[in-house]
């Protein structure tokens, strides 16, 4: 399939304007080669702190550091010419105060050259997002299931099943929607509530495990490609099984090496004289 070339990266302002239009296509990317492969197909690439679990084998995203996010943000920026690039602010780098959040967001923007940052949180983070947005930092919000709060939530579980929980998430959506965020990720949220939130807020909602009612969708690329097999959340559709293909390729390579069938003559340098 040929993908038409586009001029420059999509801006957060452009993503904002896509509310209610064609669904916004988003995926995660952590490295230059993956960013190069995904860029032409996506409106937005997220350098998610999920990289802690997917690339580094951590149990949660809580231990991911700012330096890790900046290193991977830089790598992704080297591979992107079309998509809007957003880098996650890791746990502990924005909750303390809006000034701390500003300083760390500035580092991310200046050192990676990305377009925006993402941070998790509802009502309690709205003031911080407004502070950043008013000072030139585009912010993508993230409500519903918030993986950085795994310890207080007691695990990863979908949200919006009770009236009380739905009311809290409604308040979160409304606060983030009017905080100056250019869009908001809604994670692991029941369909009826996700639909309601999408109608409630003026900015695009990007769903992950939040039904087709959202203005856009995001998945962790390694999940949908079948590269991350520790666990697969129910909301993930596997578009390939690259992990199995890697196994097969490594098995063939090992067999060839042990049988001295690799390297073959065409892979071998011969003396010219
Ligand atoms: O870290 C991440 O990859 C994310 C997405 C799952 C939305 O926050």
Low-pLDDT parts are none
Helix content: 25-40%
Bulk shape: globular
* Terminal residue distance: 46 Å
| Tally of individual helices | 11
Radius of gyration: 21 Å
Structural features, described:
This protein has 273 residues and is of the alpha/beta class. It contains eleven helices and eight strands. The chain has helices at 12-16, 32-38, 51-54, 66-77, 98-112, 123-134, 150-153, 163-177, 191-200, 221-224, 242-258; strands at 24-28, 44-47, 84-88, 116-118, 139-144, 183-187, 205-208, 216-219. Strands 1-2-3-4-5-6-7-8 form an eight-stranded parallel beta barrel, surrounded by five helices. Helix 4 (66-77) runs parallel beside helix 5 and helix 5 crosses helix 6. It starts with 11 loop residues before the first helix and ends in a 15-residue tail after the last helix. The model has no long low-confidence stretch (mean pLDDT 96).
How are the elements arranged and paired?
Layout: H1 12-16, E1 24-28, H2 32-38, E2 44-47, H3 51-54, H4 66-77, E3 84-88, H5 98-112, E4 116-118, H6 123-134, E5 139-144, H7 150-153, H8 163-177, E6 183-187, H9 191-200, E7 205-208, E8 216-219, H10 221-224, H11 242-258
Parallel strand pairs: 1-2, 1-8, 2-3, 3-4, 4-5, 5-6, 6-7, 7-8
């Amino acid at each position: 399939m040929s993908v038409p070339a586009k001029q420059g990266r999509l801006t957060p302002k452009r993503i904002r304007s896509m509310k209610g239009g064609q669904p916004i296509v988003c995926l995660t990317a952590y490295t230059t080669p993956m960013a190069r492969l995904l860029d032409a197909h996506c409106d937005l690439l997220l350098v998610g702190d999920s990289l802690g679990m997917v690339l580094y084998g951590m149990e949660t995203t809580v231990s991911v550091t700012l330096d890790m996010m900046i290193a991977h943000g830089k790598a992704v920026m080297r591979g992107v010419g079309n998509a809007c690039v957003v880098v996650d602010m890791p746990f502990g780098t924005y909750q303390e105060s809006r000034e701390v959040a500003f300083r760390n967001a500035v580092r991310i923007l200046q050192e990676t050259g990305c377009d925006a940052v993402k941070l998790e949180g509802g009502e309690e983070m709205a003031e911080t997002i407004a502070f950043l947005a008013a000072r030139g930092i585009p912010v993508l919000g993230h409500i519903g299931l918030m993986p950085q709060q795994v310890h207080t939530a007691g695990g990863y579980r979908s949200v919006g099943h009770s009236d009380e929980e739905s009311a809290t998430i409604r308040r979160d959506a409304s606060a983030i929607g009017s905080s100056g965020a250019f869009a908001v990720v809604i994670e692991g949220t029941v369909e009826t509530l996700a639909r309601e939130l999408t109608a409630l807020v003026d900015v695009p909602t990007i769903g992950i495990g939040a039904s087709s009612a959202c203005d856009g969708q995001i998945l962790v690329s390694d999940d949908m490609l079948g590269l991350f097999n520790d666990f697969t959340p129910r909301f993930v559709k596997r578009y390939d099984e690259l992990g199995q293909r890697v196994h097969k390729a490594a098995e063939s390579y090992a067999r060839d090496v042990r049988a001295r069938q690799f390297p073959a003559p065409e892979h071998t340098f011969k003396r010219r004289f």
